[in-house]
Amino acid sequence: MQAGEDQLKAWMAQGLDGDAASHTALLRATAPLLRAFYRRRVGDGDTIEDLVQETLIAIHTRRMSYDRDRSFSAWLFAVARYKMIDHFRRTRQTCPIEEIDHLFSDGFEDETNARMDINRLLAALPEKQGQAIRQTRIEGHSIGDAARHAGIGESDVKISVHRGLKALAMRIRGERP
Amino acid sequence: MNTECLIDRLADDVSPVPRHAVGLRLALGVLAGGAITLSLIALGLGFRADLGLAMHGSSFWMKWAYPISLGVGAIAMAARLARPEPVRILAFWPVLIPFVLLTAVTIAEMAHVPPAEWLAMWLGKTWKKCPWLVLMLSTPIFVGLLWSFRRLAPTRLRAAGATAGFAAGAWAATLYCLHCPEVSALFVLSWYTLGILFAAAAGALVGPRLLRW
Questions:
Q1: Nearest to B10 among A27, A66, A67 (CB)
Q2: Interface pTM, i.e. ipTM
């Protein structure tokens, strides 16, 4: 069961008054919330668990900085966000070398070639279809956003994507559209 | 360590936290550092010989009110920055009210003195060392505030560092008044303020490194 803001806030207040049981309940309930928070934003599993533990230690040792009149979740996620930014700041120092490796690896060339292929294929399509595919399938915009951007209807975008993909498939198979 | 074990271990130590814990903790840091600053002044510089007499005059209190009010404002500012909440720095403009008031007093003071004496009034006898002494004397108080922040959660480290330096400078200047024989408002406005700004700049410089958590 997931505890809501009211329950968490009550546990926090009791913990601040010195009630160890409430404090334990609070830490137990926040651990999965933090795990979900970091899973959505940070890469691998070990890092996530490290961040969860660091954040639990921080909310324990720095609980003085929570204002009882304010939202507990806002405070909790502000601490979590700080820990995440601190983590990125720390790891960035070692990151560039990995990125340079990445530049020289075979994968980088393949990726770049793939991007060039996609550009060439999309350029061969009518402009409306190419745009619709690029925005919804490559850049990850929603159908609605793409429609607004192009100034056309949503169903028009869907049809353009469908026809464009069909034309591309035929072209790749070597058939004339 | 497994997260469950960590939670159990953390739960072993749950001491009650009073309602105004942030303010108390900051005040304690300033007091502890201030005690060291005060002993440095007592042992190294000596209190001004006419301190008892000066405390009966208004110029001493005018001079004292300035760094004290800056110090109170700076601590209030530090208390806000000690919580991980979004803070608008511009909302802290009332901290500058003492500066505006002292500027008004200075202008009134200068109006009563012939312009030929303004330079002497401005530089006093100790202008060269005053800002540097304030900066040096602020160090123990700054360290005290670093201790305070160890249980707090500042997220804007440079702003928090600058504010801690500002507070340390203001309280160091307050204690330095017990030694400093200068009397003009123009002197206090210029050189005390400069010393406090030095301390704030030093705090901004080291804040991101020393306040990280």
A1: A27
A2: 0.85
